[in-house]
Design a protein that fits this description.
By secondary structure, the chain is α/β, with parallel strands linked by helices. The chain contains 16 helices and 16 strands. The protein folds into three domains: 171 residues, NAD(P)-binding Rossmann-like Domain (Rossmann fold, 3-Layer(aba) Sandwich); 164 residues, Dihydrodipicolinate Reductase, domain 2 (2-Layer Sandwich); 63 residues, no CATH class. 42% of the residues are buried.
Length: 443
C-alpha cells in the first residue's frame, strides 16, 4: 500500500481525490489549512484521512507528513512548491505538481536525479495536457520525416455557451486572484520568423481573434514565454511558435485598462477596508471622488461613452458608493478580485468549458499539412467542473503510475514531454473521455 500526501483542497481537487481513492493500493492523506474542506472531499472514505495544516507556519508538521508518505502532490500556490520539494529531497520522496517549473525548482534537478526521485511538474491542463498532446503530434510528424513549420497552442477556461450570461464572458473555476495576477505577465513569441516581445502593459492589447470550431471566433492573447518551447518541443524549424489564452469578446479590452489603471497592485493599504467602491476606483485612477467619476474616467481613457470597458466597470459596480470593501481585502487587486468573484462565480447547475486547440503546419518532402487538434470539454451539471477534471486528473493518473513503478527509469525535474510519461497518461485520459480530436488538411 502506497501513501500519497495531497497538499491543498481547493476548487480543482475533487476529481483527483476520487480517482486516487478508487485505486486499491493507495491511501490518501489530505492536508489543508481548512480541515473541513479535506473532510468534505474524503466523504468518510476508509482509505482517506484529513489533516489540518498551515503551510506558512507549521513547517515541522509539513515535514513529518512528507516524511511519512511515499509521494507528495502539491496543489498549493506555486510559491510553496519549493519548500515541499526540498523536504521531498531530504526524505527521498517523489513530487507531483500542476504548476510551471520555476528556476529554483530546476536547480533541484541534479540532486533529484542522484537520489532517483521524480519531480513531475506541469502535469495539469495548461500546463499539462497541452504539453502531452502537442508532443504526441510533434513526434509523429518528425517520425514520418516531416518538420513543424508553424506551431500555435491556445487554451482557455470559459463558461459553457448556455451559461455565458455576463458582459465579461468569464466565470471563475479557479482562483480569481490568480486569474488577475496572470495579467501582470510579459510575453515572448515567434511570428513568421520574427521574435515578438510584449510588455506587461500591452499584454491584453496584443490580441486577435481565432476560430474554435462550433464556438466561432474567440479573443486570443499571448501566454508567457513561448520561445522556451523551441528547444523543449524540438521546434528548431518553426517560423511561428505561439502559446496563447482564449477569452470571450470584451475581456482583453477591459483587462488592458484594468492593468494600466493599476488595479493589479498588491500593495497592502490599511485605508481600503470600509471604503466604498467608488472611492477606491477614484483612488486607483487618481481622479476626484465625485458623481462625475465615470465621465472623468471615460475622458481619461479616451473612450466613448458607450465603451464596453466603462460598461463592464459599471456592471462590476466600480462606481457604486453604496458597496463597501470587506476587511479581508486590503489591496487593489483583492478588492477587484473579490468583487468579480461575487458577480462571476458559477451558480448551482451551471457548467464551465475548456477549449484547447493546437494548430500545426507540417512540411514533408512531397507535401504540406495543416493539423488542427482540438478539445472542447464541458463541466458536469451539478458535478465536477471541466477545469477541475482537466487539471487534476492528469496529476492523479501520473501519481498512480509513479506508485505503480511505471516511471522508475525517469528521475530529476521533469515536465510531461517524454513519450514514456505522456503516452500512458493520455491513454487513460482518453478512457475518461478527456481527448483531443485531430483533423488534417493538405495545403
Amino acid at each position: 500500500m502506497k501513501k500519497v500526501l495531497l497538499l491543498g483542497a481547493g476548487l480543482v481537487t475533487r476529481p483527483l481525490v476520487r480517482y486516487l481513492l478508487e485505486q486499491p493500493e493507495i491511501e490518501l492523506i489530505i492536508a489543508s489549512r481548512t480541515v473541513k474542506k479535506a473532510d468534505d472531499l474524503l466523504e468518510g472514505h476508509a482509505k482517506g484521512k484529513a489533516v489540518a495544516l498551515d503551510v506558512k507556519s507549521e513547517e515541522n508538521k509539513l515535514e513529518e507528513l512528507v516524511k511519512s508518505t511515499d509521494i507528495s502532490i502539491s496543489l498549493l500556490p506555486w510559491i510553496y512548491h519549493l519548500k515541499v520539494a526540498k523536504l521531498c529531497l531530504k526524505h527521498s520522496k517523489h513530487l507531483v505538481t500542476t504548476s510551471y517549473v520555476s528556476p529554483a525548482m530546476k536547480e533541484l534537478d541534479e540532486e533529484a536525479k542522484s537520489k532517483g526521485l521524480l519531480f513531475l511538474n506541469e502535469i495539469g491542463l495548461d500546463p499539462g495536457i497541452d504539453h502531452m498532446s502537442a508532443m504526441k503530434i510533434i513526434n509523429d510528424i518528425q517520425n514520418r520525416g516531416g518538420k513543424v513549420a508553424s506551431f500555435e497552442s491556445i487554451c482557455g477556461g470559459l463558461p459553457a455557451p448556455d451559461d455565458n450570461d455576463n458582459p465579461l464572458g468569464y466565470k471563475f473555476s479557479w482562483s480569481p486572484r490568480g486569474v488577475l495576477l496572470a495579467g501582470r505577465n510579459t510575453a515572448h513569441f515567434l511570428k513568421n520568423g520574427e521574435e515578438v516581445f510584449v510588455e506587461n502593459k500591452n499584454l491584453f492589447k496584443t490580441m486577435w481573434h481565432k476560430e474554435a470550431e462550433t464556438l466561432g471566433k474567440l479573443e486570443v492573447y499571448p501566454n508567457r514565454d513561448s520561445m522556451i518551447y523551441k528547444e523543449l518541443y524540438g521546434l528548431k524549424d518553426s517560423k511561428t511558435i505561439f502559446r496563447g489564452t482564449f477569452r470571450n469578446h470584451g475581456w482583453c479590452e477591459t483587462l488592458y485598462n484594468v492593468v494600466n489603471l493599476g488595479w493589479l497592485d498588491d500593495t497592502e493599504r490599511t485605508e481600503l477596508p470600509g471604503m466604498n467602491l467608488r472611492s477606491v476606483t477614484a483612488k486607483v485612477c487618481n481622479l476626484s471622488d465625485d458623481d462625475n467619476l465615470k465621465a472623468n474616467l471615460t475622458k481619461k481613457l479616451n473612450l466613448k461613452d458607450d465603451s464596453i470597458v466603462i460598461k463592464n466597470f459599471d456592471w462590476l459596480s466600480l462606481f457604486d458608493k453604496n458597496i463597501y470593501v470587506r476587511p479581508e481585502l486590503p489591496t487593489y487587486i483583492d478588492v477587484l478580485a473579490g468583487r468579480m468573484l461575487e458577480l462571476m462565480s458559477y451558480k448551482k447547475g451551471e457548467r464551465d468549458m475548456i477549449v484547447l486547440q493546437h494548430d500545426f503546419i507540417a512540411e514533408y518532402p512531397n507535401k504540406k499539412e495543416r493539423i488542427i487538434s482540438l478539445m472542447i470539454d464541458y463541466g458536469i451539471k451539478n458535478g465536477d467542473s471541466a477545469m477541475a477534471r482537466t487539471v487534476s486528473l492528469p496529476a492523479a493518473i501520473a501519481t498512480k503510475l509513479i506508485c505503480d513503478g511505471k516511471f522508475d527509469g525517469i528521475s530529476g525535474v521533469h515536465i510531461p514531454i517524454l513519450p514514456e510519461i505522456y503516452e500512458p497518461v493520455l491513454k487513460e485520459l482518453a478512457e475518461l473521455k478527456i481527448v483531443m480530436k485531430d483533423s488534417v488538411s493538405i495545403l
